[in-house]
Amino acid sequence: MDSSSIYILSAGLYSWFSKYSQKCLDTEDCQERAFQVEESQDLWIYNLVTKAIVEMISPSNEEPTLANNNKNGFMSSILAWLKGSNDTTGQCVFTGFTIYEADDLPLAFSDAYVTALTATVKCDLTVFQFGQSKYYGSLAN
Predict the structure, then answer these.
(1) Whether residues 48 and 108 fall in one domain
(2) Torsion-angle region of residue 57: left (phi > 0), alpha (psi -120 to 50) or beta?
(3) Residue 20 clears pLDDT 90, i.e. is over it
(4) Could you tell me which InterPro entries the record lists for this protein (predicted)?
């Protein structure tokens, strides 16, 4: 996310099980996504190989590179993915949120503090979940 000048010359991403079961190998869907791209540029991926993953490369708000379309024997593979080499790929619109409202701050704060504390934090709204007290655990494994 929001990365630049990333050069991957070879990568193998494997997902052999889901919830400690290998039943998903029959349908090749142990994992939904392997490589998520958001707001990134100058991204070059060569020789990407995946196993049992539905979307090999998933740029936000764009069409993913599907493993089924790139089967090469036992694995799925692509020689090169250069979509992010010249332009920003996976462009997102972050509505964001504010941490404080101006009325909630002490009057003694300077204008600079008020501006900083009431500014919109532009990020994915799923960030809110980390403000809740709960056990996040592993990703179903």
Answers:
(1) no
(2) beta
(3) no
(4) Pectin_lyas_fold
User: CA-CA distance, 138 to 111, in Å (whole number)?
Assistant: 43
Evaluate whether 75 touches 65 at the Cβ level (below 8 Å).
no
- CA–CA distance, 43 with 6 (Å, rounded to integer): 5
- Which residues neighbour 9 within 8 Å (Cβ) at sequence distance 6 or greater? 46, 47
Q: How many domains does the chain have?
A: 2
Among 81, 106, 121, the domain-final residue is 81
**Nearest Cα to Cα of residue 28 among 2, 56, 7:** 56
Range of the domain at 33: 4-81
**Is 61 among the domain residues?**
yes
Contact 92, 39 (CB under 8 A): yes
In a domain, 88, yes or no: no
The 10s digit of each residue's pLDDT in 24-50 is: 888 888 889 988 898 888 889 999 999
Under 8 Å between Cβ of 18 and 30:
yes
pLDDT at 140 over 60: no
pLDDT tens-digit series, residues 66-100: 999 999 999 999 999 998 788 878 877 767 778 88
Evaluate whether residue 139 is within a structural domain. Answer: no
